């Protein structure tokens, strides 16, 4: 069995994400949204932190709009001063978005919320394994953030089926997600 490094996995996954057909991405994102919205943890949550999807990722932009219509308070991550620390920021409907330090969209006008007030965190990933291990983009932003959350705060990773691998290499700083939803 060949063990790939984190960088090798990222490289392969970025290529798969980039070459995935748009109609497959849209179809699978809709399935993932339905699965997420049916979970009891999502239904009970009043304040949900989503990520704003980048090209190729599971599309959270539509999920965010629907969650807002359902009355959820939606927060999104904001990178602080080009550092790996992220803070949850309220995203209102029709809020103008700007590119943050790592090219991730974030609200132009910032209204932060305390991380301990988040009921559910939706987590992006380049790859996951069935044990909840997650491979991100390599900055450690989410690992640092998830580590600081209260233990009771659930986290759910969203992925396409090809992003689920038998085993992800991990280190002591990596933080698992509580659950995976994929299609």
Written description of the protein model:
The protein has 183 residues and is an alpha/beta fold. It has helices at residues 6-19, 22-38, 40-44, 61-69, 141-148; strands at residues 47-49, 73-79, 86-90, 97-99, 105-107, 120-123, 127-129, 134-135, 155-159, 164-165, 179-182. Strand 7 (127-129) and strand 8 (134-135) form a beta hairpin. The longest helix has 17 residues, at 22-38. It starts with 5 loop residues before the first helix and ends with a strand.
Layout of helices and strands:
Layout: H1 6-19, H2 22-38, H3 40-44, E1 47-49, H4 61-69, E2 73-79, E3 86-90, E4 97-99, E5 105-107, E6 120-123, E7 127-129, E8 134-135, H5 141-148, E9 155-159, E10 164-165, E11 179-182
Parallel strand pairs: 1-2, 1-6, 6-9, 7-10, 9-11
Antiparallel strand pairs: 2-3, 4-5, 7-8
Strand order of the largest sheet: 3-2-1-6-9-11
Major sheet size, sense and barrel closure: 6 strands, mixed
Question: Based on CA inertia axes, which overall geometry fits?
Answer: globular
Number of contiguous helices: 5
Oligomerization = single chain
CATH architecture: 3-Layer(aba) Sandwich
Q: What are the segments in which pLDDT stays under 50 over at least 5 consecutive residues?
A: none
Helices and strands: which structural class?
Answer: alpha/beta
- CATH names the topology as Rossmann fold
- Sheet-strand content, in percent, reads 15-25%
Total discrete domains? 1
Distance between the termini: 26 Å
Rg result: 15 Å
């Amino acid at each position: 069995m060949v063990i790939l490094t984190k960088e090798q996995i990222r490289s392969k996954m970025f290529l798969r994400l980039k070459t995935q057909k748009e109609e497959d991405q849209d179809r699978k994102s809709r399935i993932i949204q339905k699965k997420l919205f049916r979970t009891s943890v999502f239904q009970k949550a009043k304040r949900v932190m989503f990520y704003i999807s980048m090209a190729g990722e599971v599309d959270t932009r539509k999920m965010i709009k629907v969650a807002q219509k359902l009355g959820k308070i939606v927060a999104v991550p904001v990178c602080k001063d080009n550092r790996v620390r992220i803070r949850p920021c309220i995203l209102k409907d029709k809020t103008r978005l700007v590119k943050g330090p790592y090219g991730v969209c974030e609200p132009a006008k910032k209204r932060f919320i305390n991380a301990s007030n988040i009921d559910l965190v939706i987590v992006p990933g380049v790859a996951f394994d069935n044990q909840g291990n997650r491979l991100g983009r390599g900055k450690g932003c989410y690992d640092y953030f998830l580590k600081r959350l209260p233990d009771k705060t659930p986290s759910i990773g969203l992925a396409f089926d090809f992003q689920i691998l038998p085993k992800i290499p991990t280190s002591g700083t990596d933080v698992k997600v509580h659950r995976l939803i994929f299609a």
